[in-house]
Amino acid sequence: MNILVINCGSSSLKFQLINAGTEDVLAKGLCERIGIDGRLVYQPAGGEKEVTEAAMPGHKEAIQMVLDALKNPNTGVIKSLDEVGAVGHRVVHGGEKFASSVILTDEVVKGIEECSELAPLHNPANLIGITACKELMPSTPMVGVFDTAFHQTMPEEAYLYGLPYEYYEKYKVRRYGFHGTSHSYVSKRVAAFLGKDYENLKTIVCHLGNGSSLSAVKNGKCMDTSMGLTPLEGLVMGTRSGDIDPAIMEFIAKKENLDIAGVMNVLNKKSGVFGLSKDLSSDFRDLETAQEEGNTFAANARKVFVYRVAKYIGAYVAAMNGVDAIAFTAGVGENDHLVREEVCKYLGYLGITLDPEANKKRGQEIRISTPDSKVAVLIIPTNEELAIARETMALVQKEK
Ligand code: AMP
Predict the structure, then answer these.
(1) What share of the chain has pLDDT > 70, as a percent?
(2) 3-class DSSP state of 345
(3) Ligand 1 atom showing the smallest separation from residue 339 Cα
């Protein structure tokens, strides 16, 4: 069975068609500038990238173009839509309602709408994609896979904030966590790679990309994660501040004459390594080049980023009373050997020693700690699309 995986944003849409049996990607691409002008990038497996500029007034037109590209007699990979057995949709926020993936019935869609308050930028876009797909493929089963679901196993002490309890009761203000599909996929791959039982392993997953988060996964369950009610909490990120003293918000608002939206804009878009490097870049490649050229702001931005990761690892070792494996994943985690090396320099107390040669490898699952290291340190490339396809396949088969 082929699964179409859709990740829908407000003006963009990424897709992959995956053969669920072989797990091969048959075609992938993205629609950009939906509602503005429109651009489809389509690439069949082993083929060239095709770029088509065409009007995409809305997501329905964008998805129609994707389906047409998949069926195109020359570069398409299927003959008819009957060859798409199901569609898996990434949904950002499932609140407390969705602790696992679900078939997208009308009732579930209503539930996702109710969670929109918690992710006002993301859930409505995800819903637009779901609605458009349902209209174009009314008899194809659709599954929602939530970024928050994997973290729903966190215990109360990890997800409650030190705020009036009624805010949790009335508004569901609590830690939810994000990147859950990645944390789930990577933590499972760690167990498989090490030949260990997932249900009997303590793993820390470091998802370090433009957005970054850590998770503590004990015996197959997420015990804690660094993002919170929103993806702003936790690590220092590309442009997000991560943890700060909340009183800074009032202080900066007064000094800079900003309202709440203005302060939030600074914390989300102008902070992180971008802000620390004096607006040089949020991309670690740029920061490293600048650091080599003697830019001390870029060097400090990287230092602050690394230190925060190391600090969270320490916290999660405490939360799980130990750790067996630490995995690096996502753009920075998979590609940046300097960040991995610098993080691991803080972890000597855990008996971790890094193999410098292995640490320079990229693009594969690999152990980068020495054989005598007390904790296994790994690179595990994440694959959220494959994880969504697997979840979708499992649910559709269960329903049959
Ligand atoms: P992601 O959000 O997972 O797509 O990660 C994107 C980020 O990964 C980019 O902004 C870069 O900071 C980082 N990145 C990608 N490739 C490299 C690389 N070769 N070296 C260092 N950082 C990289």
Answers:
(1) 100
(2) helix
(3) 21
